[in-house]
């Protein structure tokens, strides 16, 4: 019944016992494990093997160490290991998954991804914008030079060029918006932000959708850009409402806005005593598995006609507040979590 993975190996290093938690952690049956050497389970198993040898030699009562164990074609395991001798010729290895390390690695990936996105967007937008003005201007000049006899038929083509250039210009402006607009800082009450978003979305979806409040009234005001935070929450809630269209039609769609205070939170490798913990939860179909790891990339959208910029901008705005957006999703529940340091 232990949650920790427990393996027992003999003096030759062969696995003699594995509890159910070990089977789950290593994704192997106890029968399969019992045919293998402990160090052979991992590509860098020598480090764990050395700890076992020291334990069998009774050099220490037990050995505790954080390890990253690599496996062929699988995700590495970040674990806290406890190795101790059992009798004269056996060793007990206890492995506990290091959840904090996993969280830090995930946050670091999100931050690296966001920085790469910002640089890509900024460079790409500028590269598109410069020739775009020339294309539009050339189309306008061409339209002025058209002979009257062909004006009605050819003007349609120049108008297509002008309208498409304007559409691309709008897209480029949206891509550059977070980098152009000044960060206007003031006192922010997160519940005022949530109420503003709630009223906007309910005005668009007046029936079939319930937006439930679950607020912690003790959350203090903090310094931030209120308009950016409204846009952030609105982008996420509006995406949720769009994904809930089938349930809205059935009349049982629900979005929950939940605010809490998180304590001792690490964001971008900085430890904060208090942080805003805002959850936006919906009971929709969930995010498609093929895009779940890429939803914060620019131009990635889970619905037909989506721009793929809403979540990218939301992540950018939250990171300007030294925070982070995380997401967990499965059919029937999608939970976007916004963390922002509090004073």
Automatic annotation (TrEMBL):
| Pfam families reported in the protein's UniProt record | HATPase_c, HisKA, PAS
Keyword Phosphoprotein found: yes
Catalytic reaction equation(s) = ATP + protein L-histidine = ADP + protein N-phospho-L-histidine
Q: Which SUPFAM superfamilies match?
A: ATPase domain of HSP90 chaperone/DNA topoisomerase II/histidine kinase, Homodimeric domain of signal transducing histidine kinase, PYP-like sensor domain (PAS domain)
NCBIfam families named among the record's database cross-references = PRK11073.1 (NF008293)
Task: Return the protein name.
Answer: Sensory histidine kinase/phosphatase NtrB
Histidine kinase domain boundaries: 123-343
UniProt domain PAS: residue ranges? 1-33
Source species of the chain: Telluria mixta
- EC number(s): the record gives 2.7.13.3
Give the UniProt keywords, A-Z: ATP-binding, Hydrolase, Kinase, Nitrogen fixation, Nucleotide-binding, Phosphoprotein, Transferase, Two-component regulatory system
* UniProt function note: Member of the two-component regulatory system NtrB/NtrC, which controls expression of the nitrogen-regulated (ntr) genes in response to nitrogen limitation. Under conditions of nitrogen limitation, NtrB autophosphorylates and transfers the phosphoryl group to NtrC. In the presence of nitrogen, acts as a phosphatase that dephosphorylates and inactivates NtrC.
